[in-house]
Specification:
about 280 residues; alpha+beta; Cytochrome Bc1 Complex, Chain D, domain 2; SH3 type barrels; 3 domains; 5-stranded antiparallel beta sheet; 13 helices
Amino acid sequence: MRRSSPFRRAPWVAGAIMLCALRAAFAQNPSEASPAARPVPRTSSPQTYAAELVAAGRARFAANCGFCHGPEATGGSGGPDLTRSALVAADERGNRIDALVRAGRAEAGMPAFPALGDSDLAAIVAFIHDQKTQAETATGGRRSVEVADLETGNARAGRRYFVSACTGCHSASGDLAGVASRYQGLGLLRRMLYPAGQQGVPARRPAATVTTRDGTTITGEVAYRDEFTIAVTTAAGEYRSWPADRVRIAVSDPLQAHVDQLARYTDATMHDVLAYLYTLR
């Protein structure tokens, strides 16, 4: 019988600034302890939202954010518990959350979502704040995520999924040979879902080529991007920015395939692929 997902059974909390320390602790202990005893910061400006908006936000959050922050916004496979976030506590109806979601946080492994619709983002903000309000009045804590919680998939099914969806970029006998010897448990799951910012993966921003109206092209790393602005840092270290509607933009992000894949995974297929990766030792 397939066991339930650890994201439902055992959510864990890991603030982004604590990720390195948690990885070191995991190397010594296969159970990552949850700092759930840390008090939930009080919301500076209490706010309420319509039940319909919160319900819509729950679905949109699960689809866009749940892979990292957990479906309840209480921490997931590399993302912090948003109910314990100081930024969320200080946010007033999205005035801080919006900018973070649009720009991402590459150094912490968080992708940007510049194309997310305003209504979808408003619903996500409502859901996060509703979860935060519930957390402020909740009692008790949560246990850690055990390695056994993750070992629920079918390796044969995972191999079939891997062959159909992942071999365009990866090879079991090439770049992923021995991956399960280098990463274990949550470390392997993080590496599989979104490797940016993970141990052993160089932090790098997507590259972009910007073409101006006179035909000039400028290439560099994406320094900032939202629906209004694109900015790059050139190889010479020069920072250039333009209104997004006045230039053509071509972005090359080798990790975008991981972001796209997150929307396709079901709970079952995610665990099946992880089970297959466990065999690559």
